[in-house]
């Protein structure tokens, strides 16, 4: 009996079970890098905004947030920040939570809560900007 030809580094059991690369790790890795790079200037702008608004009245704060550039920057900060947080927590859960049901529940909670909080924050910025 001849030895089977080896074309893969996966074991025969791994091939039968269908275990291997999910082909999604690169996208997740890139999104973490893109969001972190995007958050750097947005965070610097946010620190600047905090200093500008320190001691400001409600009307001054509303005027600052209502400026189109500042409203867009706030919305970008919210979007990138919550996306980055959700992806980071997803990576931790996928790496360290073992029972499949528990992992799926945690991932559902993370995605749902981060999406809900992002929508609330974005709605708040839009409400201040347009009223």
UniProtKB/TrEMBL annotation:
Cofactor(s) needed: heme
Keywords: Electron transport, Heme, Iron, Membrane, Metal-binding, Transmembrane, Transmembrane helix, Transport, Tricarboxylic acid cycle
Gene Ontology cellular component annotations, sorted alphabetically: membrane
GO terms, biological process: tricarboxylic acid cycle
Locations listed in the record: Membrane
Superkingdom of origin organism: Bacteria
Pfam family, one: Sdh_cyt
Biochemical pathway: Carbohydrate metabolism; tricarboxylic acid cycle
Membrane topology value: Multi-pass membrane protein
Subunit structure and binding partners: Part of an enzyme complex containing four subunits: a flavoprotein, an iron-sulfur protein, plus two membrane-anchoring proteins, SdhC and SdhD.
Name of protein: Succinate dehydrogenase hydrophobic membrane anchor subunit
Recorded name of the encoding gene: sdhD
């Amino acid at each position: 009996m001849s030895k089977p030809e080896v074309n893969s580094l996966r074991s025969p059991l791994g091939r039968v079970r269908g275990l291997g690369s999910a082909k999604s790790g690169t996208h997740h890795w890139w999104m973490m890098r893109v969001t972190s790079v995007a958050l750097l200037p947005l965070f610097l702008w946010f620190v600047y905004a905090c200093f500008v608004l320190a001691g400001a009245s409600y009307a001054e704060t509303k005027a600052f947030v209502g400026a189109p550039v500042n409203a867009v920057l706030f919305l970008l900060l919210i979007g990138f920040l919550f996306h980055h947080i959700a992806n980071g927590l997803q990576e931790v859960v996928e790496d360290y939570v073992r029972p499949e049901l528990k992992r799926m529940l945690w991932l559902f909670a993370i995605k749902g809560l981060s999406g809900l909080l992002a929508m609330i924050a974005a709605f708040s910025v839009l409400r201040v900007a347009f009223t």
